[in-house]
Each structure stands twice: as C-alpha cells, then as structure tokens.
C-alpha cells in the first residue's frame, strides 16, 4: 500500500502521529496502526490510557531530576545506595544505561541536556544550579562527570569541572573506554561498566586545571 495515499483521513492522521516518534518511518507507522485496528477496543483503550497516565502522573525526582512515580525516586530514597557519590548524566536514558551495568551503587544527577550554543541551550537551561546546591550541602565526597564524549558533552564537562573545583569534592570522569564522540546510551554495558569502575580523576582524563 502506498503510505502517501491512504484510503482514510483518520488512518492518515494516526499514521502521521505514529511516524512522528523517533525512529518510526511511515511504513512502520502504518503497520503499527493497522495492527492496533485489529485489536479489541478495550485493548486499544488500555494502550492509549497507559500513555495518558504516564504523561499526566509521572514526576521528576525533587533530588536528582530522574523520572519517578513519587516526589523522590527509588534510587534517591534507597538507604543502601552510596549517597556521598553523585554520577552526573545528561538524560534519564543514561541513568538506565548505567544501572544496567550493575557496577555503580551511588546516586545520580540528571542535567536534562548538555550545553549547546548552536541549539540555544545554556547552563541556565540545565539543572546545574541544583547540582551545586547538593554539593554545597557538604555531604558529597565524589562527583562523577559521566557525559557523552561529544564536543558538546566535553564542553559541559569542563564547565562543571570549573564550577565544582570551588568545593572540597573529588571530581572524576569515566575511563576512556567510551570513545570520543560516543553517547552513553549506545555504549555496551561491559564497556560502560568498566569505564565507571575504572574512573579516574578528571584532570588526568582531560588535562584540566582548576
């Protein structure tokens, strides 16, 4: 079937919405929509309601900005985690990637992006001030800067290093198992796990100075 000549405007509207999702082309969108049309009305209602409930009820952790069902996420509220170590990541997906390695037992801080002037994203658009407040409270011993090794990621890492250097806190970076230009989301679990476990002082990885 020609996905550009659909027999129903309702079908076309649904395909357009489905194909707006990342990684979903129009052919795949059409296949998914036609599959849903074959399902019982109750199943489709449950399917759609799950997304509405997620969008309306999911919360942002008041401590680390991870997604959560409550005001404080399960990681931040877990007494068995090492709350003196913060791993700073770009996104919620990075938290999931690192957790999958089973090599990290500390807590997180989700920036919500990285500094990218070309995209109009500056430090004030990220949760950097909230991170500094956590460090300034005095209970943090180490901050691991675990950002993508893209140019924007390293720009953000240097910015954080300069800010964190004002505090008596160890600043670490992932070992260079994660190659330049790589995003954590696409790094395999073994490599990422080793990079976290073998993390090194920020200055040795980047040659930075305070």
Provide a descriptive summary of the structure in words.
The protein folds into 2 domains: 49 residues, RecR Domain 1 (Helicase, Ruva Protein, domain 3), CATH 1.10.8.420; 128 residues, 3-Layer(aba) Sandwich (Dna Topoisomerase Vi A Subunit, Chain: A, domain 2). The mean pLDDT is 88. Helix content is 41%, strand content 13%. The protein is elongated and about 65 Å long. The protein has a 5-stranded mixed sheet. Strands 1-2 form a two-stranded antiparallel sheet. It is α/β, with parallel strands linked by helices. The protein contains 8 helices and 7 strands. Strand 1 and strand 2 form a beta hairpin.
Please give a handful of descriptors for the protein shown.
Helicase, Ruva Protein, domain 3; five-stranded mixed sheet; 2 domains; single chain; 210 residues; alpha/beta
Task: Give the SSE map.
Elements: H1 9-18, H2 26-38, H3 41-57, E1 59-60, E2 67-68, E3 82-89, H4 92-101, E4 106-110, H5 128-136, E5 142-145, H6 151-164, E6 170-173, H7 189-197, E7 200-201, H8 202-206
Parallel strand pairs: 3-4, 3-5, 5-6
Antiparallel strand pairs: 1-2, 6-7
The gist of it:
With 210 residues, the protein is an alpha/beta fold. The protein contains eight helices and seven strands, in the order αααβββαβαβαβαβα. 41% of the residues lie in helices and 13% in strands.
- How confident is the prediction overall: mean pLDDT? 88
CATH class of the largest domain: Alpha Beta
Helicity range of the residues?
A: 40-55%
Biggest β-sheet, characterized? 5 strands, mixed
H/E series: HHHEEEHEHEHEHEH
Count of individual beta strands: 7
CATH topology-level fold name of the largest domain: Dna Topoisomerase Vi A Subunit, Chain: A, domain 2
Span between termini: 61 Å
Relative strand content: 5-15%
Poorly predicted regions: none
Biggest sheet, spatial arrangement of strands: 4-3-5-6-7
Kindly provide the radius of gyration, computed on alpha-carbon positions and rounded to a whole number of angstroms: 21 Å
């Amino acid at each position: 079937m020609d996905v550009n000549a659909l027999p129903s405007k309702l079908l076309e509207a649904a395909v357009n919405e489905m194909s707006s999702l990342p990684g979903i082309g129009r052919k795949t969108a059409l296949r998914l929509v036609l599959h849903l049309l074959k399902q019982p009305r109750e199943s489709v209602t449950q399917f759609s309601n799950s997304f509405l409930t997620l969008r309306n009820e999911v919360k942002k952790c008041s401590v680390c900005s991870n997604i959560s069902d409550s005001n404080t996420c399960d990681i931040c509220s877990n007494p068995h985690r090492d709350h003196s170590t913060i791993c700073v990541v770009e996104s919620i997906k990075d938290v999931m990637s690192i957790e999958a390695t089973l090599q990290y037992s500390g807590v997180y801080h989700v920036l919500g992006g990285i500094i990218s002037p070309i995209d109009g994203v500056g430090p004030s658009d990220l949760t950097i001030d909230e991170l500094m407040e956590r460090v300034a409270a005095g209970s943090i011993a180490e901050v691991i800067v675990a950002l993508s090794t893209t140019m924007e990621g390293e720009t953000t890492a240097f910015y954080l290093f300069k800010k964190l250097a004002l505090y008596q806190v160890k600043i670490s970076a992932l070992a260079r198992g994660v190659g330049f230009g790589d995003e954590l989301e696409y790094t395999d679990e073994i490599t990422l796990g080793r990079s976290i476990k073998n993390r090194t002082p920020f200055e040795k990885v980047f040659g930075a100075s305070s």
